[in-house]
UniProtKB/TrEMBL annotation:
The lineage of its organism: Bacteria, Bacillati, Actinomycetota, Actinomycetes, Kitasatosporales. It comes from Streptomyces nigra. Belongs to the carbohydrate kinase PfkB family. One of its GO terms (molecular function) is 1-phosphofructokinase activity. It is an enzyme of class 2 (transferase). This is 1-phosphofructokinase.
Length: 315
């Protein structure tokens, strides 16, 4: 079982539009409403693969109730922590050329009692978990050290933990030695305080996170593929994608694929790449099923193309 923890979940509305023009009326060609948040998306991808997952998340108000209903409808077990503030609602505008514009609300501020209940829920649910995936931003009311505390508790209970966050929360948490962290290129650049122009730069940044304490780094580089760096070695994975429909949740699908495949080594990296490539071909934040995957399009190698220039350099 894969347990996900999403401290700042959302109700996500995605509109597909021909093009985005400021100040004009834009008629959407498609729309979706999904439960949102990085950990929520990981649970959705795990459930789509036919595996058991439990989602721990604070929920409040009508948007929170709708998030829970949508998760239940997708076969996901929900361990809600009731909060007084309403769960945030986010908007994504997906253009036909693949450009995505997102508007993310801040979310509610958790009280001291709600913070304690959230930690208790994670510990209670983790007793039967093979992995805990802690994902996303921290809501107001949670200190930057919160993820680090969860990592320490998980390891004390003998549970492996994956982390997908950014900024001070990431830097604090890596010192607690999470089993794997999954930054994207922008988050890598922010963590090491320097721009990334090549895959070699991304590799150096991943090694820096390992030096700070992360046991393994799974780095998503968008269209430029993914890197896996751990004690056993370094691998680079990529997949050809003809058409990008939406990249919402693609990194979360990748993390789910990685954990589903065991969470270590080149086979898990191949699964991560396959899941991420499948996700970008789907609308909104739809998570791929096994039928959507194309393992034959995936290449994994220990020969990392360090001189390859990133299509979208990270600063």
């Amino acid at each position: 079982m894969i347990l996900t923890v999403t401290p700042n979940p959302s109700l996500d509305r995605t509109y597909e539009v021909p093009a985005l023009h400021r100040g004009e009326v834009i008629r959407a060609t498609g729309e979706r409403m999904d439960p949102g948040g990085k950990g929520v998306n990981v649970s959705r991808a795990v459930a789509a693969a036919g595996r058991r997952t439990v989602a721990v998340l604070p929920l409040g108000g009508a948007p929170g109730a709708l998030v829970a209903d949508l998760l239940h409808a997708q076969g996901i077990e929900v361990a809600p922590v009731p909060v007084t503030g309403a769960t945030r609602s986010n908007i994504a505008l997906a253009e036909t050329d693949g450009i995505l514009t997102k508007i993310n609300a801040p979310g509610p501020e958790l009280t001291a009692a709600e913070r304690a209940h959230l930690l208790d829920a994670v510990r209670a649910q983790s007793r039967t978990a093979d992995w805990i995936a802690c994902c996303g931003s921290l809501p107001r009311g949670l200190a930057a050290t919160w993820y680090a505390d969860v990592v320490t508790r998980a390891h004390a209970d003998g549970t492996r933990i994956a982390l997908d966050t950014s900024g001070p929360a990431l830097l604090e948490a890596v010192r607690a030695r999470p089993d794997v962290v999954k930054p994207n290129a922008e988050e890598l650049a922010q963590a090491v305080g320097r721009p990334l122009a090549t895959i070699g730069d991304a590799l150096d940044a991943a090694e820096r996170l390992r030096a700070l304490g992360a046991r393994a780094v799974l780095a998503s580089l968008g269209a430029d593929g993914q890197l896996l760096v751990d004690d056993a070695g370094t691998w680079y994975g990529s997949a050809h994608v003809d058409t990008v429909r939406s990249n919402v949740g693609a990194g979360d699908a990748s993390l789910a694929g990685f954990l589903i495949a065991g969470g270590n080594g080149p086979d898990a990296l191949a699964s991560a790449v396959a899941h991420g490539a499948a996700a970008v071909r789907l609308p909104g934040s739809v998570m791929p099923t096994p039928a959507d995957l194309d393992p034959t399009a995936v290449t994994v190698t220990a020969d990392v193309p360090v001189d390859r220039v990133l299509g979208e350099p990270a600063v």
